[in-house]
Specification:
2 domains; ABC transporter transmembrane region fold; binds adenosine-5'-diphosphate; 23 helices; six-stranded mixed β-sheet; Rossmann fold; disordered N terminus; alpha/beta
């Protein structure tokens, strides 16, 4: 609990510190402008509509004054009826324009949401894997949902509020001044009482808004993390549910507190504004009535002035509120732009090339690599930490060089943490090397087009990920055009066809989030089927058969051997059968290749591989042969 509290204090100090440093930037406004530009014709129409509405709004009070004057001066009845009809007509027109305006602003607003969302989605998708390993999914999703909607709401409210109200305000003031400058000036005496607190409130509300957004994100982060199948399993096994609940309750309580504070502040603000305008109304009746009794003002003018005053303070209230909304709009926009502003570390070159046809070689040439430091790939606010570690990470690979000729299989063995998976991830360019080069078919992977690289390199990892979707959809990811025949063929070769046939909906069975309704081995075989379907020329197997039992491994191994035929392969193996067949075996330790050669060469050399072979791979004595084969750690 106390750790949680410290975390919160930290979070808050970050929040506030950021606010102090960050002026609501002009750059933000420029970027909003860029997003609004495609909608400029709609915006113009919207503004025109606002002007017409404002004109109509001023007309009614003036007409009402005329009616009063007609009554007082005992004028003719026809005039009164005509004036009343005109007022009715205006009311109908106002209603119609209101609906039209709302429709227009909704079109604008929803259009903006669409633009922002797709922009964020596209951008986030282009981020390197390093970004996702650091970012909390909940925080990111909250950016896409809450902040985008917040930005839109504030944007369209601001637009409709500001434009219409500024025009109404000016027109109303002008008409009031022509009716009686004394009454108008007196009514305006209370204006500063109005504007000054409004400014202060605006700032305060923006602060609360920002805090609320962060708190909401923290809450949804916790939910997405705890409610995923692996997260929930972890809590069941290790977690203390009471503590989990208490921590969640603490977060939710903070959301409640800020909600109450915002609501209270908002209503106090509105009430104060209403009170001020009522007081001003009393002044108008007082002074106007006095002037009318002295005969210097028409009675109708007093009525018009009083009615106009209510129309004066309404736009003022709205404009004061608009300040608040502009502030929160900027906050939401900032939070969205913050994500859009992250530069993807790995990008396709403008003159990117294709991988040459036919079987290709794979070459690592003096590769040095450190996982990128957090501040290069992520945002503190998405990780919920106070600050990101900067500088360069510790080097994980210290000069890796080897070459796999077209069609050859290279096996990597070595202790856990040696850097085998890291080497594998450099090939499909999940990360870029710091020094040296990784080449496919003689071309540096950094010079290849993303599409070509993806079509060339396939990878199966230990924890093969499946989308929460049907078996078919998960397979089609690899080859969108594949027909059912091909799908079944791939499943058969991965020794999974019998199982899929038994599933309630066959190929159309949804495999749960992370493929949870399948066992580890079945999930792995499905990812292998996906690999077989994709038919990439370079294949990486990172402990791809780790979850399989002996029987299914033997079966899948056959399929893999078949699949690897004619392909260049990088195999991180933990079983002897795969390693022995490799054309080249590399023993990796602490980021270096410490031994290399074929199985026989390395055994004869009597070094680390030979030791590894004796302790891990060697046939087990009869007694333990029933147990699953020992993996190389
Ligand atoms: N995403 C990552 N960020 C930072 N360091 C990492 C990351 N993944 C792995 N490492 C580190 O890199 C080293 C090599 O890891 P890895 O390549 O996964 O080893 P292996 O696959 O041989 O078990 C380890 O020290 C590990 O802690
Ligand atoms: Mg590994």
């Amino acid at each position: 609990m106390s750790m949680e509290t410290t975390a919160w204090t930290q979070l808050h100090s970050v929040l506030y510190a950021q606010q102090e440093q960050r002026p609501l930037a002009r750059a933000t406004l420029r970027r909003i402008g860029a997003f609004a530009r495609p909608h400029r014709r709609r915006i113009v129409r919207f503004v025109a509509l606002g002007v017409v509405t404002a004109l109509l709004a001023v007309a009614t009070p003036v007409l009402a004054g005329r009616v009063v004057d007609a009554i007082v001066s005992r004028g003719d009845q026809g005039t009164v009826v005509r004036l009343a009809l005109l007022i009715a007509l205006i009311a109908v027109a106002e209603a119609a324009l209101g609906i039209l305006g709302r429709r227009l602003s909704a079109t604008l607003g929803e259009g903006l949401i669409l633009d922002l969302r797709t922009a964020v989605f596209d951008h986030v998708q282009r981020m390197p894997v390093a970004f996702f390993t650091r970012t909390r999914t909940g925080a990111l999703v909250s950016r896409l949902n809450n902040d985008v909607i917040g930005a839109q709401r504030a944007f369209s409210n601001t637009l409709s509020g500001v434009v219409g109200n500024v025009v109404t305000l000016l027109l109303t003031l002008a008409v009031m001044l022509t009716l009686s400058w004394q009454v108008t000036l007196l009514a305006l005496v209370l204006l500063p009482v109005f504007v000054v607190p409004a400014r202060r409130m605006g700032r305060r509300m923006a602060r609360m808004q920002r805090e609320a957004a962060t708190l909401n994100a923290a809450m949804s982060t916790r939910m997405t993390e705890r409610f995923s199948a692996p997260g929930a399993t972890l809590v069941k096994l290790f977690g203390r549910p009471e503590e989990e609940s208490a921590q969640f309750a603490a977060r939710a309580a903070r959301v409640r507190d800020i909600g109450i504070r915002t609501a209270t502040a908002q209503s106090a603000f509105i009430t104060a504004l209403t009170l001020v305008s009522s007081l001003a109304l009393a002044l108008v009746y007082g002074l106007g009535g006095w002037l009318a009794l002295r005969g210097t003002l028409e009675p109708g003018a007093v009525v018009s002035l009083a009615l106009l005053l209510t129309r004066l303070y309404a736009p003022l209230t709205a404009l004061a509120g608009a300040r608040v909304e502009i502030m929160s709009a900027l906050v939401s926009f900032e939070r969205v732009f913050e994500v859009l502003g992250l530069k993807p570390l790995i990008e396709e070159k403008p003159d990117a090339r294709e991988v040459p046809d036919g079987p290709v070689s794979v070459e690592f040439d003096g590769v040095r690599f450190a996982y990128p430091a957090a501040d290069k790939v992520s945002l503190a606010s998405l990780e919920e930490v106070a600050s990101l570690d900067g500088g360069d990470g510790t080097e994980v690979l210290h000069g890796i060089s080897f070459r796999a000729e077209p069609g050859q299989t290279v096996a990597l063995v070595g202790p856990s943490g040696a850097g085998k998976s890291t080497i594998a991830q450099l090939l499909p360019r999940l990360y870029d090397v710091d020094e040296g080069a990784v080449r496919i078919g003689g071309t540096d992977v950094r010079d290849l087009s993303t599409a070509s690289l993806r079509a060339t390199v396939g990878m199966v990892t230990q924890d093969g990920h499946l989308f929460h979707d049907t078996v078919r959809a998960n397979l089609l990811l690899a080859r969108p055009t594949a027909g059912d025949e091909e799908l079944w063929e791939a499943l058969r070769r991965a020794r999974l066809d019998d199982l899929v046939r038994l599933l309630p909906d066959g190929l159309d069975t949804v495999v749960g989030e992370r493929g949870y309704r399948l066992s580890g081995g079945e999930r792995q075989r499905l990812t292998i089927a996906r690999l077989l379907l994709a038919r990439q020329r370079v294949v990486i197997l990172d402990e791809a058969t780790a979850h399989l039992d002996n029987v299914s491994e033997a079966a899948v191994q056959e399929a893999l051997t078949e699949a690897l035929h004619g392909r260049t392969a990088l195999v991180i193996a933990h079983r002897l059968s795969t390693v022995r067949a490799a054309d080249l075996i590399l023993v990796v330790e602490a980021g270096r290749i410490v031994e290399r050669g074929t199985h026989d060469e390395l055994l004869a050399a009597g070094g680390r591989y030979a030791r590894l072979y004796r302790t891990r791979f060697a046939p087990q004595p009869e007694r333990s042969s029933q147990r699953p084969a020992q993996p190389v750690p």
